[in-house]
Amino acid sequence: MSTTVGSSFITEIRQLDKNGAGQAVVWHENEKGNSKKLKLTVPETLPGEKVRVTVDKPERRRRKAVLEEIIEAHPERIGPACPHFSLCGGCVWQHWQYAGQLQEKTNHVKHALEAQGFEPYLVQDTMGMEDPWHYRNKMEFTFSPDGTLGLHEQGNFRKIISLETCLIAGKKMVEAAMDIAKWASDHHLSGYNKDTHEGLLRHLMVRESFATGEMMLALFATEAPDGNLREAASDLIDRIEAKFPEVKSLLWLENRDWADRTQSEKTHVLSGRDFIYDELSGFRYRIWYDTFFQTNPTQAQKLVDLAIEMGQPKKNEKMIDLFCGVGTFSLPFAKQVKELSGIEIVETSIESAKRNAKDNGITNTHFLARDARHGIDEVIDSFGTPELLLLDPPRSGAGGKVMRKIGRAQPERIVYVSCNPDTFATDMKELLPFGYQLELVQPVDLFPHTVHVECCALLIKK
Ligand SMILES: C[S@@+](CC[C@H](N)C(=O)[O-])C[C@H]1O[C@@H](n2cnc3c(N)ncnc32)[C@H](O)[C@@H]1O
After folding, report:
1. Of 6-15, 295-304, 415-424, where does mean pLDDT reach its minimum?
2. Mean pLDDT across the stretch 124-146?
3. Inter-residue contact 68 to 54 (CB < 8 Å)
4. Which segments of the protein form a coiled coil according to its record (predicted)?
5. CA 279 to CA 113: how far, in whole Å?
6. Active-site residue 419, yes or no?
7. pLDDT of residue 86
8. Pocket test for ligand 1, best of 286, 306, 340, 344 (most atoms within 8 A of CB)
9. CA dist 189 to 64, 216, 290, Å?
10. Are 147 and 201 within 8 A, CB to CB?
11. Is residue 104 within a helix (H) or strand (E), and if so which, with residue range?
C-alpha cells in the first residue's frame, strides 16, 4: 500500500486521459524526505480546473484520486443530468456542456492525425446531435446475485447499480427493463453470482428500432424456462404482451457458460419471432439478439450519408465493403454502383447481410465470410480492382497488412469509417507510400457524453 493513499492535494487538471478522466501531477515527499512526482487520475474533472483531491488507490503507473472540491471550475462545467452519473461508467462527460464534449472530440481526432504526420486542418468540426439524449437502440443490463437489475458500477464489475433511469437509452427500453426487474422480484428469482456460478438470471438485453418501433427483450438465464420456472415465464409473457405490444421478440436464452457474456446455448422464443426489423437509409434489416447493428441510428444515418457523399459511388463502378457487418453501408452503396462485394469475419453477419440484400431486392452484391486479411485477396482475384473501397474496421483498426493490401490494389477512392482515431491515423499512414492523399476527415458523434468518436475520411489516389 502506498504511503500517499489518503493524502490530499490542491492541483490543476492538465489534460484528459483516453477514458475521459482528468490528469494532474503533484509533488510529495517520500519516506526518505525526497521530493517525488506523483501522477494522478481524477475522474469527473475537466481540463484547467483547480481542484482538491484525495489519493484513493494506486493504479499501475498513476494514482487514482477522488475529487473533493472544485476550487476553480471549467466554464463549461454543468450538473450531470443522471442520478447514476458518479457510479455508472456509461457517460463520463455528463458534467460537460455538449459543445465542449464535441470540441474535445475534434481535438482528439486532430491530435491523432497530427501524430502520424497528417495536417490537422483536414479535420472538420465534429457533427453532434440536436438532442443528445435517449439515442441508444440497444442496452445490456445485468442482474446482481440478489436479483436486482441494473448497470455495472464504474471500475467494479461485481457491483450493480440498481436501475432507476438511463438517459441515453430509448425511454421505452428503460420502462420495459424496469418492468422485468419488477417481474423478477415478484417471483423471487435469483440473480447469477459470477464467483460461485450459482443463480438464475444473468443479463437482460433490450433492443428497440426507432424506425419501425419494434422491440426485443432477451433474458439470459442459467436454466430453461420450464419445470419450476414455467409459471414465472408464462407470467412474463402475459405482462409483456399486455403492456408492450411493440415487443415483437421476447426471448429466453440459456447461458450456462462461465464467461460473462450475452451468449446463448439454446434460444427459447417466448413470444413473437427471434428477430426484430429495423430500418436505416430506407432499407429493412433483420436484427437478432447477437447482430452487430449501429447503436445510434440518428447519427449512423448521418455517417452513411456522409460516406456516400465522400465516396461518390457511380453506376459503372465496382466496390468493396471491407468489415461489412450485416450490410449497413453495403446496401445503400449497392444501389449506386454496378457490383459490390462485402467481406466480414462473422458468418452469421454475412448470412444476415445476404438476407438483408435479398429482402430489399438488391441483386448486385456478393458477401464473403472471411478474415479481411485473406478475403481482400480472394475478392480482388475474382472481382478485379474496385474503383471504390470502403472499410469500417473494429476499434483495433485494420492493421498494416490489410492496409498495404488495399494500397497495392490501388482503388481510386477509399472511404475509411472508424471508431478509433488512433488506429485510424496509423492505418491511413500505411496508404501514403502507395500514392494516396488524405482529402478530408469528418468526425461524427455517435456516443454523446462518452469519450468515443466516429470518423469518416476520404483518401484519393494521386
Ligand atoms: C465497426 S463494425 C462495422 C460493421 C458494419 N460496417 C456496420 O456499420 O454495421 C466492424 C466489423 O468488423 C468485423 N471484423 C472484425 N474483425 C474482422 C476481421 N479480421 N476480418 C473481417 N471482419 C472483421 C466485425 O465482426 C464487425 O462486424
Report:
1. 6-15
2. 96
3. yes
4. none
5. 33
6. yes
7. 83
8. 344
9. 37, 21, 25
10. yes
11. helix 98-115
Q: Cβ–Cβ contacts within 10 Å for residue 317, how many?
A: 20
Distance 325 CA to ligand 1 centre (A): 5
Q: Tell the residue number behind the cell numbers 455517435, with chain if given.
A: 446
Residues with CB under 6 A from ligand 1: 292, 294, 323-326, 328-329, 344-346, 349, 371-372, 392-394, 419
37 φ/ψ angles, rounded to the nearest 5 degrees:
-80, 135
Whose CA is closest to atom 12 on ligand 1? 323
Atom 13 of ligand 1, residue of closest alpha carbon:
323
Q: Do residues 63 and 2 touch, judged by C-beta distance below 8 A?
A: yes
Whole-number pLDDT of residue 50: 97
Instruction: Give the orientation angle of helix 171-186 with respect to helix 230-243, to 10 degrees.
Output: 150
pLDDT of residue 59: 56
State in Å: Cα 397 to ligand 1 middle.
Answer: 10
**C-alpha 345 – ligand 1 centre gap (Å):** 7
The confidence score (pLDDT) of residue 1 equals 43
For 323, half-sphere exposure in the C-beta direction (CA atoms, 13 angstrom radius) is 19
Distance of CA 52 to the CA centre of its chain: 33
List, for residues 425-445, the tens digit of each pLDDT value: 999 999 999 999 999 999 999
> What is the overall mean pLDDT for the chain?
94
Q: How many Å apart are CA 260 and CA 426, to the nearest integer?
A: 32
Is residue 113 within 8 A of residue 50, CB to CB? The reply is: no
Q: Phi and psi of 215, rounded to 5°?
A: -125, 155
Enumerate domains of the chain plus CATH numbers: 8-75 (2.40.50.140), 103-130+296-461 (3.40.50.150), 138-280 (2.40.50.1070)
Provide the pLDDT confidence category of residue 333 given band limits of 50, 70 and 90. Answer: very high
Confidence tier at 87 by pLDDT (50, 70, 90)? confident
CA distance 448 to 98: 8
Say how many Å lie between the CA of residue 391 and the centre of ligand 1: 9
Chain center to CA of 137: 11
Nearest CA, atom 17, ligand 1: 345
Q: Which of 82, 88, 166, 419 is catalytic?
A: 419
pLDDT tops 80 at residue 63 = no
Q: Coil, helix or strand for 449?
A: coil
Q: How confident is the model at residue 61 (pLDDT cuts 50, 70, 90)?
A: low
- Total Cβ atoms within 10 A of residue 127: 18
β-strand partners of 52: 10, 69
User: Which ranges of 136-192 would DSSP assign to H, the alpha helix?
Assistant: 171-186
